[in-house]
Amino acid sequence: xxxxxKLRNELIDIIEWKDETHDTMIWRFPRYxxxxxxxxxxxxxxxxxxxxxxxxxxxxxxxxxxxxxxxxNIPILSTIRGWKYGFNSPFKVDVYFVSTKEFLNQKWGTxxxxxxxxxxxxxxxxxxxxxxxxxxxxxxxxQFLLKVVGTNGEFDTxxxxxxLRSFAVTEFSDYLxxxxxxxxxxxxxxxxFSKELTDxxxxxxxxxxxxxxxxxxxxISLPKEVQxxxxxxxxxxxxxxxxxxxxxxxxxANSMTQPGGNGGTDTxxxxxxMGMGLAMAQQMAQQxxxxxxxxxxxxxxxxxxxxxxxxxxGQQAGPYNLTQLQQMAQQGQxxxxxxxxxxxxxxxxxxxxxxxxxRLFTLTPPPIPTV
Length: 371
Hints:
Largest sheet: 5 strands, antiparallel
Strand content: 25-35%
Radius of gyration: 35 Å
Number of helices: 10
Structural class: alpha+beta
Strand order of the largest sheet: 5-4-7-2-11
Helix content: 25-40%
């Protein structure tokens, strides 16, 4: 084989990328020491574009199809080094193949809890959340190549996943802080919440030449006591607003039969959880009422009962309604000297001094005299 024939065989005349991976975003055609022959065939498959880079500058971008690399049909190549002495000479450029397919099911999640203020509960809550997102490289890959890839010969989703996850977590935290949404609404409106976050995140992705196509919030993890309160609230909403008082009475009666249910700390903790659940149940019940058919006759809401906090064994318990307080008075847990408080009162006051509660003790029989 002559020297000319040997050199001709070393020249590259077919340039293509058969992607057999699921996560490769950028792949540089390996030239090694070979040069690209004038008139070489560039094959760009669907879901790809090819980018020619000369001395670190983007020379041209090729869409899917078969392309002949020659100065006769690609005039920009005539300026590449080595071609100015003869258009039949071989040339050296870097050919990057860019995957334009959609990369699916990329994971995101909060490494540390996000603290939000719940307007309904009136307290700060630590949340954890996770989900997934889909994205792809934009139609013009220049920005992604220049800002992210640089001179890397191969780039996959692992190389950018950490940055994209930080975008997601930051936007998630900012969104919660700005909107101050109740946790009940977050837990029951994943679809709407995900759509709004998708719109908010698109700008951050586009700055790096990426298109965010979908962002999903799949789970929001709440503190145990809050989740238990939501579960109780859902049960109350299922029963209905008409039976909510009866449900509360039943829960209170059950707690009294449990170990420590004699007015100690277990009863207090259970009652506090019931109060939180009751508040959430009222919101859930209102949402259920809005979904009823148009024109359906619904009775007006029941009058709101006064709710009192009670000092039991030196600890705050409640709030309790009048029916519960009557049961407590009958069982000796509530006396005239027991301190109580409700909204509108300046300070804790003995139950016997509150006009609304004083009648509870007239209904209680006096102690049996000793013989």
